[in-house]
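Changelog note: in this version the structure field was regenerated for every chain. One regenerated record is shown below for reference.
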Amino acid sequence: MSKDYYRVLGVAKEATNQEIKKSYRMLAMRFHPDRNQDDPSSAEYFKEITEAYGVLIDPDKRRTYDRQRGFSFNRETVFDDIFSRSEFRDVFDDLPIRKEWIERILNISRVIAYEAFVVGGTPGSVLRRSMVRLAAQGLDRVFHAVMDIHEKIVIPGTIAVTGGYMTLEYRPGLLKRGIKVKIPRNTTSGMVLRIQGMGRKNPLRKAGDLYLHVDIGSS
């Protein structure tokens, strides 16, 4: 059965990538299951809007879809493709949604399946490439375990509700650093705000990320 991805995301057929990302962010914030724990259908709807986003944000998939509306995309492959391309997955960077939650709902950690569906080849070549990707992911996890910084941030209640900006100091190296942080609307205690590239830097100048663990203070 053909899916109307444009209708699912609420965008026009001529929508730009920025419009597609904007619509997806809005729907993801509204429907992710953490905010709809009494609605068991929210997880499936989140998968549906993410599938639509993954098809329409990818130029090749979008062309295929526009030519053949009956074309059936593999949902799991669409999810894997989103997270294998930084320009596609950056839609999640400013969403107050835990990475672990996204991985669990979308089930995007099957490296061998990704290699088989997306790249193809003989079983042996798929396995070899998968081992390389798994090793790279392991190194990436070690890098982030060392270079990421976790800090607590106390946000006044009024800013948490309306959104806004806060300035904070932290220590990525020997010296303290001050940064201005954007606080999304309706931020709640327990959320984690990720600021990419603001962690510690290694000798090659590659930086980890800064994670701000949110607590809501008095207004």
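Spot check on this record: Confidence is low (pLDDT under 50) at residues 109-120. The two ends are 51 Å apart (CA to CA).
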